[in-house]
């Protein structure tokens, strides 16, 4: 859709007709105050993630059906943004008014939002269905109270007790699973988890269960809670935001992040070989080079090349660094060798 003004007006009208503008603002990270469903909304700016309530959205404008203004940082005046709905979405998706998401991604986001209730405008394409948003929100103290820390399973695999404790890697007292909590982008609230079976793998069913149990009782090696939108998060992202490291290492899984941490390297995991657009935008916001270090197998090699292309489209300096020969992934490399490998 090349006529972006027409796209903005059409999507704005559809959002207003649905009566769900307040919901859209909430999905963009704005805690709206005032009178949802009315002509004006006030809250925290979802573009620069401000703490004050100097962000205003109106629906009674003459130029734009939906308009917005950030009166503290003046995000709406940024050179690459407009004070209309798509301008707001572009800025909110990256959290950086100077490096907003592309117009196409903003259009897709609004289409997606509308499609979940069947209110999408007929002139735009049907987007893919988004997963259900997580309802979990636990403090770190609550997480630690619920788990046996550090995880005996990961201790038995040779991971550092200090690193396991730092990342709250424990085991469910009720089910015996190893648990890697997933925190929000600020590292304040636990929004989900990655579970790891502590049972031995079965050579017949490829799942994990005790030898005395039937394959019908097998469980996956790794899994997520039902409905968890893994494409919206990066494991250990909050640490990458705070880090002064000149680069960030992008890996596939939790154990890769743990091993990198033992070597003093900041890494984030995308939960597999796929990288979603929201995850790519989070990496772009870091404004530092990304080194992609996926598994030493054909799938990892192909995915790494594809993700480098995606990141470069978002303006990220990205390169591929395969784990040394003889190691399947970063998680298998001894910590001392991780340092030498990255320095080579």
UniProtKB/TrEMBL annotation:
SUPFAM superfamilies: DNA primase core
InterPro entries: DnaG_primase, TOPRIM_dom
GO biological process, one term: DNA replication, synthesis of primer
Residue span, Toprim domain: 246-324
Enzyme Commission numbers on file: 2.7.7.-
Protein source organism: Urbifossiella limnaea
Enzyme class: transferase
Protein name (Swiss-Prot/TrEMBL): DNA primase
UniProt keyword terms in alphabetical order: Nucleotidyltransferase, Transferase
GO cellular component, one term: cytoplasm
GO terms, molecular function: nucleotidyltransferase activity
